[in-house]
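User: Batch of two.

Assistant: Item 1 of 2:
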Amino acid sequence: MTTDVDIPVHAKDTAEEEAAAGAGRSERLSALAQQHGALVTLLVAMAVASLSFDTFLTGDNLENMALSSAFLAVVALGMTYVIITGGIDLSVGSLFALGGVLAAWASQYGFVAALLLPLFVCGLIGFVNGLLIARSRLAPFIVTLASMLGARGILLSITDEGSTTYLVGKGSFFAKLGQGSLLGVGVPVWITVVLFVLGAVVLRRTRFGQYVYAVGGNEDAAALMGAPVARTKISVYTLSGLCAGLAGALNAAWLASGVTILGSGMELDAISAVVIGGTLLTGGFGFISGSLVGVLLLKVIQNVINQIGSLDSAYQQVVSGAFLAVVVIAQTWLGRRRRVL
């Protein structure tokens, strides 16, 4: 004869509550790893570099790293919005170079022209990208690849196949925008900080930011909820073009010239920084602050390789590529874990 043993109801409830609590903790840990994993890695890398090289934490070295990071960071800011919507922008490297040349050429007509011309042209190209992607439903990869080639062609045409280099007048107000400093920190660094604060506020605290996440999470569901999907896509690609043009203008002011060979491969660096910072390539999840951390981490890797001296600069690409692969694998695993939980 068998006897059924009834489990008290309160015991069942307690077990279910403990299981739910455990799943909740695991999900929070996975989310924290995605959001702050790059920051922890950056701090560890800086600690190791400071112990290995006496010159790493010197004021000059940190200032140089911050200044060289500023231009890529501005490009990565616009790229973050694009990737959160589930898109990609391959044109930013060419727009960066084009913006620099346009700014240097226009600097002869004053500060306003030097700043507004690259913003207008690069923003317009970004707007066209967004229009083709949102309205014609073309693949972002193809559209922005065409823009990358087109912008580089415009650049070559206005510089006589790269043989003409436009210079920024020394001592001009526009040159001071790139070469000046405030409280011992370069002006481009301050501009980058302000832009990232504004970008984070817009993404997290405004309706437009909610639309960006919604479009990247599920475009069809976002449309059913009343989100302006097409307008959001057009806006983020326009923003990406504006950021690339502004970064190019700041770089021209810093170098006091429009260098035609810059920007090659910059789109890949920007994408790498954004993904390393925790933004998912599939869209719907990402952080502005994470992109800044990703940029800094790439610059620390580059600086460490330069500090070693015996390694070729190509090792930077090898290390960055390997690190990016690890990050993508980790993001995929954490994303699946969160869905299971």
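Item 2 of 2:
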Amino acid sequence: MLAAATLAGCERGSQDSPGVSPTGPGGCPAAQAGAQAAVSRAERTDVPWNGPAKGPAAVPGKTIVYVAQTMTNPGVAGVARGVREAAKVIGWKVRVIDGEGTPAGIQAALSQAVTLRPAGIVSGGFDPHSTSQQVARATAARIPLIGWHAVAAPGPSRSPRLFTNITTDVADVAAISAQWVIAHSRGNAGVVLFTDASIPFAHRKSELIRKALAACPGVRLLAYPNIPIPDASSRTPREVSFLLARFGNRWTHSVAINDLYFADAAPAFRAAGKGGSGPPFNIGAGDGDPSAFQRINNRQYQAATVPEPLSLQGWQIVDEFNRAFSGRPASGYVAPVHISTAENSEGATAWDPAGYREAYRRIWVR
């Protein structure tokens, strides 16, 4: 049944990319050189704060609601922690409502949030188009909405109406993830790309990764499994076992739109006798949660991540709300991409640019 689903490429199962050859030509010297230079820049850890230095002082006495796609998604949960931390500093109250990863649950959570009439609402990791009625109610009530990974691009959005959307640039994340594979493999790899096509943001990211991998003829896309994040824990181990049986040693590298796929894949790799340090060598194109860093630092079935600066983004959400409450435009800040490995993380379990807490405190006069 699993094999049939994989070969058929059904929407909620696995799919092989059409026309993909598992034995393509080798190498790509020019693309490999460019990839190595980009990766070296992204692995730097001495990145100074390049975010906002000016803005309105803290508006007092606000309450915001963080509506989470699911708090089992480590990225969503990590941003929620950042929001709570920043809200405590600025002097606001925060309530988190868990959508539990289902359309009905997310709609109910956002409905509850609107009914509470807070000063602002966060769309945490889900597409607001799927909650259009609730978004319309919030807009009618003049409650500003801020998204985290809510739409494909950072910044303000008219449809759906968001004061701003907080994310690293998905094109940059996709490009550097693919470049890491090209550089690490020296232009010769067999790749499995894990995605969740039910989330437009995630699907766009994986499509950009797929196109970037194609820049190197020696990198072959073996399979393109589509596993919704809420189903990852139950479906990923079976999928990995099937793909290992099918491709064997031709599977040398993996990219996933979220690190959590590799947590779920680890038991299947282990059962197949694969060593934790690879191959396959696995990179997560988000989100860089603590468990991903632990796998990387311990060399247990993940070699790298392109982490979202989750805590920083929580602080940025609070700052953007403060700008909205003050009648100011969004800051326009987009965090730069970074690659974390065992070699440059130095045992850390998160990555954030230095100096953001101090910068936001100065802006808020806190």
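The CA atoms of residues 192 and 254 lie 5 Å apart.
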